[in-house]
Every structure is written in C-alpha cells, then in structure tokens.
Amino acid sequence: MSIVIADEPRTAALPPPEPVTPARNYLNTSYGVWSWLLTVDHKRIGLLYLVSMSIFFVVGGAAAGLVRINLLQPDGAILTEDQYNRMFTAHGVVMLFLFLIPSIPALFGNFFVPMMIGAKDLAFPKLNLASWYVYMIGAGFMVYAVLAGGIDTGWTLYPPYSSRYSHTNVFPGAFGAFITGFSSIMTGLNIMVTIHKMRCPGMTWGRLPLFIWAMYATSFIQLLGTPVVAITLVLLLVERVAGVGIFDPAIGGDPVLYQHLFWFYSHPAVYIMIVPGMGVISEIITCFSRKNVFGYKAIAWSSVGIAVVGFLVWAHHMYVAGISYYSALLFSFLTMLVAVPSAIKVFNWLSTLYRGSITFHAPMLFVLAFLVLFTVGGVTGLFLATLGTDIHLHDTYFVVAHFHFVMVGGMVLAYLAGLHYWWPKMTGRMYSDFWSKASATIIFVGFFLTFVPQFVLGYHGMPRRYPNYPAEFQIYNVLSTAGASILGLGYLLPGFYLTLSLFFGEKASANPWSATGLEWASPSPPTTFNFDSTPVVVCGPYEYSIGVDQLGRGLPEPPDSGNNPSYKETEVVH
Amino acid sequence: MNNTMPALAERASVVADRFEPLFWYIMAWTSAGTILVTLVLAYFCIRYRRAKGETIATPRILGSHRLELFWTITPLFVFLSFYAWGVWIYDGVVTPPADAPEIQIIGKQWMWKAQYEGGQRVIIGGNPGNMTEEDRAHIGALVLPLGKPVKVTFISEDVIHDFGVPAFRQKVDVVPGRYVTTWYHPTKLGEFHVFCDQYCGTWHSLMVGKIKVVPPDEFEQFIQGKGGAQGSGNSVDGSLAQKGWQHFQRLQCQSCHTPNAAAGTNLHPRAPSLEGLYGRTVPIKGGGSVVADEAYIRESIVNPGAKIVEGWERVMPGNYESQVTEEELTQLVAYIRFLKAGGMFAPNDRAPAPFGAPRLTLPTTPSGSPGGSKP
Fold first, then answer.
1. Which among A93, A303, A484, A561 is least buried, having the fewest CB atoms inside 10 angstroms?
2. Average pLDDT over residues B106-133
C-alpha cells in the first residue's frame, strides 16, 4: 500500500504574537438577564443551550439512575410498574429530544460554525434566538408532562397504545416533541445557509474543517427529516384527541404506518446525533496528533453518504413488526451499506495517528474512548441489521446496549471531547488537567461495566422495558447497575471542575492547544464579532506538519513541547 | 427456578440451532475488527506519543486511495456475508410448512390466549388479578410437540404486543387488526420462557409465560383432549370450527349466507355462499380479485363494506365489532375455513336462531328481488 507523503519544505512561519486580551469580549460586553435572554450573538445563544441542555442531561440521568436501581431486584427494588414505565419514558424523552438531538448542533454548531468559517455570526441571528425559545417552550411542555404524572409510552410512542390506551400525559409530551422539532429545523436551516453563504475569502469547500462538513450533513437531515416526525406526531394527537382513525385498526387505522413514519425521521435522527460528534473527533484527533487528517475527502463524503443513505434504512427497526418479506430483505441490505461509511471514518481516524506526535489531554482521552466505544457500538449494530439474528435480538437489552454504545459511548463522549477542547475558547479559562483526565478514564471504565452486561442479557433474551424479570438475569443487572454508578460519578466530575475553572482556572491563551482552525485566531473568549477584520484563508484545515494555521501563520508551541509561554499545567482545584 | 444462566443461551428449536452459528460468525468478525482497531490504536498511542519537551516533526500524510478502497470494499463484503446468511434464516422463519398443526394466539393486555384446532384453550402468563374467572381456570403453558413443526397465527385485540421465545430465537410482533404467522420446530423437551417484547402498558413485564415442549405422543393425547398436560381447566368442548359454527348460528349469518333458497320459501340467498370459499380467488366489485384467506375473511366480518364480491350488493350490517370478540372471530374464521361444499343447510323451522341471537331486521322484499341477486 502506498501512502502519499507530500514532502513540502517546512515553512518557518513565526507564530503570531499573543493578541492583547481585549477589554471587552462577548461575555462581559453587557450584563443583566435581558442582555442574555434577548441576545442575538451566536456564542451567547450557544451558552443558553449549554446551560439548559446540561440541566436536562441531569434530569434524564437521574431518571436512568432510578431505572437502574430498580433493576437490582427481579421484582423491582424501589418503583411500582407504573412508576418504572414513567421513569424509562422520561429518561428516553428527555435525553433524546432535549439533549442528544440539540446537543452538538445547538451548542458547538451555534458557537463554532461562524467562527470556523470566518463569519461574524450565523446567517439569521434572530431565528437562532427564536430556536432557543421554541426549544424551551417544547421542553416546558415535556417537563410539564413528566411532572404532572408522567408518560408511560416509551419515547417511541407506538400507537394504538399511545393514542387510545395510555391514560398518561401523552398529549403534552408529544406536543412538546413536536415543538422542539421546529427548533431543530431552525438551527439546521441557519447552519446550512451560513455554510453556503458566509464563508470568508479563501474558505473553499475543500478547505472546510471536517466539523463543518459534518454539520452540513446534519443540517440536511434536520431539514428533510424533522417535518415528517412533526406531521406524524400531529396525526397521533389527532387520533388521541379527536378519535379519528389513523393508526388504530379498531377505528380503521394502521399501526404499522405510524412506525414507518416515525422511523423515517427517527432513524436519520440517530445520525443527527452522531454525525456532528464525528466532526468533533476529526478536529481533535488531528490537533493532538499534530497530523493532517488522513483521507479528508473520504471523511467529508462519508458524512454526506451517511446523511443520504441514512434516509433509506428506517424499516430495519421493523423486521418483526409485520412488514413484507421483500421489504425486510431490501432494508437489511441497505443497512449493510450504511455501516460502511462509519467504518471508513474509524479507519481514517486511526491512520491519522500514524507517525503522529500524540499527547493525551482530556479532549484526546475522550476521543480515544470514543473510538473504542463507537467501534463496539457500530459492530454490534451489524447483529441487528442481519435479519436472522435480529429476529431474536430485537427489543432485547442487546438493542439497549447497542444504541447506548453509539449514543452515549459515541455521541456523549464526542460532546464531552468537544466541550473540553473548546472550553478555553468559550470561557477563557483552563480547567484542571488532572481531574479532566480522571473524568475521561472513569467514564470510559464505568461505561463498559454498565453496558457490556446488557449485551449478555440481550443475547439471553431479556426484553427491554421490563421492571420484572426472571431471577437468572439478576447477576448481570446488578453488574450493570454497579457500572452505572461509576459512570454517574464520571459525569458529575466535569460539572464540578468546569464550574470551578470559571472562577479559579488559569487564563487561557488564544490558542492553548496550538490548533489550526480559524476559531483559535480570535482571542479567548472571543469578542462579540469574533474577528477584528475579515480573515483570509490560505490553506486547508489541518496543516499541523507544516505548522501553520488556516491563515498561513505559524502555530504557538503546543502544550507539553518544551517551554511553552502560553500554557501552564493548571493547578489542581479541589 | 434456576438462578444461574449458562454461558451459551439454551437452544430448543431448529431456528435456534441456525441462529447460533450466524451469531458467533458475526461475533468472530466483529470482535476481530474491534480488537484490531483497539490494538492499532494502543500501538500508535504508545509508539507515537510525545514526551515532554520533545520537538514535533510529523510527516504530511494526506491519504491513500488504495487504502481507502481496501477498507471500503473489505467491510462491505464481510457485511454482505452476514446479510446473505441472515436472509437464509429469515426465509426459513417466515415460510411455514403446509401441513403443520395450527395454533391461534391472541394477545391482550396482559396475557396470551391460545386456542388449538381441537378447541383447547390455554392462557399464557399475565396478571391473574386482571383476568376473568374463566381465563384464570385456563392458565397454563403453551404445549408444543417435540420434533414437529407447529404453525402459529397471532393477532392482538388491543395494542401491539410481541411474542418472543428466547430459547427458540424467534420473535414476532402481534399487531391488532391483522394476522401474523410464524412457526416453531422444537428440538428439546422442557419449559421455556415466553416474553412480551413490545411495550404494551402497565403489566408489560408480567405478560410472560411458558412454553412446554412434550413428546409427540403426549401432544397427540393433549390435542385429542385425553392428556392431562394442562391440568383440569382444558376439557375439550368442541373444536375451534365447532365453536365457530355456534357463533355462526347465534349471529344468524346463515339467514343471508345460505347456499340455496330457504326451505318452503322462494327467497334467494342475500349474500354469497361461504361453502368452499377458503383459498378461492374472489372477484371484487370495482375490479380486481382477492384470495380468500384468513385476513380477507376476518376483514369481511369486521368491515363488510371493504371488499364486496362482484355481483352482490352490501346488505351486511357493520356492527359486528361490538358483538364478536377477537377470539370468536378466530373461531368463525376457522368454521368458514373448514366449510366444504354441502356443509351448510338453509335456515328452516327446525333450526331456529338460538335464544339471545340479535334480531336482524332484513328488508322484507317481494319475492324474486332480494337485496342481492345471484349471478
């Protein structure tokens, strides 16, 4: 195998002088509640999302904790069946609609897409603010649904149970999901238009950072998929409220139709969740290995490939739901195809490390954990894509473990990697090096201990959504709960040291990781309009081996390479 | 109850024996892939780590088309081998053999109601507090014969359920309003878990029960009503079709679906004859045709206007949902299935409608011009 090595002479470009920290940045330019609630600054809106999503993550995590504690006993340790059903539904609804779907697009997409392409803001700043309000209104309905007695349908809301049989708060819950969908559409539209129209001079499509490509692919899915789930939820509510027969066969409907419509969105939606995470990985792995990304085009186009083919695989959730023989064959085949681009990405990331100069700060540790967990999550999907094995594994804990490996081991770790990577830029502060590394390690170990036993349970046939189970399953449930408590601890740590860093953290330089992206050309934290003058891009995004950023300037010394004036080991904050 | 699980899950059917090799084949490939990725990752991280103070000198490697091609094509072919093998197993699962004994199972919040052709009725699993007295008397295990295929037809009378049998490695969604068929070929004696795998409400996790695989002769005894496989609650009081005939009488279906003019009258039948209907291709008003299978017969009872036979008018009232339960529908369908030519007689004084039958107010049409005309 030949590997193309471009032997260009190394430019001896000097790093730019550390910019004078401006007196006014986007954080201290104005104060007061209204300066935040009425802001049109994409960075402030990103932080609004960060705060609200973090709260919902804690809520969803608490629900998961109760679910896992209850599973310690085969007949339910603490909750009644009704309470358990409400709890796993709350966990699913909150985590999916209020955390995973907005997570990276709404936080890092908002904050960094304009900065990475050299723009002052997103294309539609007011639409951006509106998207947060719409999200909060939808979240309000969902929180009401959960607090006022809960929902017991599972996040998938399958009729006729959800439309005609459940006596719980299906209406506010589904209506909340309907509303947050518009927030997702607004963000997707905004980012797509921004990438098309607001790239700075020299920022060609071939020079876009891979995070931007990933966000572009994600926006495509958000724009095309979300309206379908919106109309599906409306049809569901029409049947529930008005009794019009759409999905319930007793009044002339078709329950499998709902599943087609629901998964037509909700399968691509898992790519809304994971593709931005893949973009984050490409940014970080290059920076911490000081290498050009291996196979830029392969990674960029595999994102687009996932976005397109991801729309054609929805019925693999329905092999045993009563779809026709030939559609099962077709959807299984297409699912095999969509697995390939993800494999391509993993191999390219691995190759990026080859002959690199690798350091292991917290963002990189999260990335390494992502690579292992995402690979496990990806390959276990193949068991479910295969017809002969899915007819047993469908709706068991094998599925639960699989999608948690992808969504949590993949997506949440990519989110945490991004958060640790960009935290100095967002806040102007460094966090504890020791505790952040500890957190990454604890999360990785806790994650494995939580979800590997669930694969075993699934193989032995333990169904999902079961508060009562045969006694022989108990040992693996106890193991899983033990792992979950370690995992929970790992998640709590960043809450502490990141918060403390705001007050006690070392001041961060403009480019503390010595990265090449445009976002690092502005001071930390950035000024309101990001750049003093419109930047002009002269090269591709990952010229680490030459040692220049996208403006063609030299890079500062990265951490851990000799005496670095701009970076010091942060004091451990207790 | 056994409190330990074997490392390899218990296998008790032909499909389970087919599932295991494929499962471990995929496991071998995916484990190898995952371990390879992890080892390469670890090797690169150690080999190319940067010590404190070390100068950075990395080559500018942009990619390799040949490598990209290699790791695109290789996984694709591996994945397609999973696909092909999986299709083979799936094909075996969805195609039942022609002459297997049949069991009808109805899913209901939160129990399974099984009916054998011979009329035996078994309630599997569920929360006894929520059952009728009669259902409670029938609680038991689903009896299946060792080494013989059995065809099972499912339908739900409320929400979506899923009949999952881990030891058989098989699972099928039980959907309201439509019949779904699968088949089992048990290969091991013993009792095995049945789980509801599709969330169905409060007691979803109690919609569990047992399958009991017995030797074929014991199954034969059970089918003939002699065996004690299910204890006392299962005396045979008529086959499924026999029960269906009773409902047919009670609902006075025969007053319209009669093969020839009623004795002593010159009334022509008002609706098409059902003798020998099953499996025939029926021309439909407005064009097209349909094979008269269980789904068609059920639909024509529940929703008579959906598909009208060519040459007939709709006279059948559409309110049978309120008069027939899902179980009774299964029995009616069984009766119509086994109704051969000459198997029905026209209503007459010697076969009055049973007590309690609904009074049909049929239009008193002058003789010779009934609601429908026989082509």
1. A561
2. 84
> Hunting for tokens 């005396």 — which residue is that?
B235
Interface ipTM > 0.90: yes
CA distance B370 to A226: 55
CB atoms within 10 A of CB B243: 21
Q: How far is CA A54 from the centre of its chain?
A: 13
Dihedral sign, Cα of residue A502, residue A504, residue A507, residue A513: negative
pLDDT of residue B310: 86
Q: Do A388 and B80 touch (CB under 8 A)?
A: no
3-state secondary structure of B333: helix
* Domain regions of chain B by residue span: 102-234, 240-337
Dihedral in degrees, nearest 10, Cα atoms A238, A241, A244, A250: 120
CB-CB neighbors (< 8 A) of A343 in chain B: 71, 75
In sequence order, what E strands does A299-439 have? none
Mean pLDDT across A537-554: 91
Decide if A292 and B61 are in contact by the 8 Å CB cutoff: yes
Rounded to an integer, what distance in angstroms lies between the CA atom of residue B64 and that of residue A26? 42
> Any chain A CB within 8 A of the CB of B57?
yes
For each of the domains in chain A, give its residue range(s) and CATH number, in order of start.
42-521 (1.20.210.10)
- The shortest CB-CB distance from A165 to any of B64, B86, B201 is to B201
Distance between CA atoms of residues B330 and B338, nearest Å: 13
Instruction: Flag if A81 and B18 touch (Cβ within 8 Å).
Output: no
Give the ranges where A243-361 is alpha helix by DSSP (H).
255-289, 296-309, 325-353
Whole-angstrom distance, CA of residue B301 vs CA of residue B333: 9
Residues within 8 A of B (CB atoms), A 263-292 only: 289-292
Percent of chain B's residues with pLDDT above 90: 42
Q: Which residue of A lies nearest to B86 if distances are taken between CA atoms?
A: A388
Name the residue with higher pLDDT: B239 or A84: A84
Per residue in A424-450, pLDDT (tens digit) is 999 999 999 999 999 999 999 999 999
Contact A383/B26, CB-based, under 8 Å? yes
Give the pLDDT confidence score for residue A296 in this predicted structure: 95
Q: Considering only CB atoms, which chain B residues are within 8 Å of A320?
A: 162, 171-173
The CATH architecture one would assign to domain B102-234 is Sandwich (2.60)
Does position A497 have pLDDT exceeding 60, yes or no?
yes
Torsion of CA B131, B134, B135, B140, to 10 degrees: 130
Amino acid at B75: P
A87-143 pLDDT tens trace: 999 999 999 999 999 999 999 999 999 999 999 999 999 999 999 999 999 999 999
DSSP tag of A562: S
**pLDDT tens sequence across A262-295:** 999 999 999 999 999 999 999 999 999 999 999 9
Residue B223 near residue B198, CB atoms below 8 Å: no
Give how far B11 is from chain A: nearest CA, Å: 10
Tokens representing A554? 């030299």
Could you tell me if B201 and B110 are in contact, meaning their C-beta atoms sit under 8 angstroms apart?
A: yes
- Cβ atoms of A247 and A329 closer than 8 Å: no
**Beta-strand relationship, B142-145 and B209-214:** parallel
Q: What is d(CA B198, CA B195) in angstroms, rounded to the nearest whole number?
A: 9
The alpha-carbon gap from A209 to the nearest alpha carbon of chain B, in Å, equals 14
Helix axes of A255-289 and A325-353: crossing angle, nearest 10 degrees: 10
Fill in the DSSP letter of residue A361: -
Residue B365 has pLDDT above 50, yes or no: no
Annotation: CATH topology of B240-337: Cytochrome Bc1 Complex; Chain D, domain 2 (1.10.760)
Both tokens assigned to B10? 């218990």
- Which of A395, A452, A476 to mutate to test binding with chain B, by most B CBs within 10 Å of its CB? A395
Tell which residue, A180, A166, A96, A97, has the closest CA to residue A133.
A180
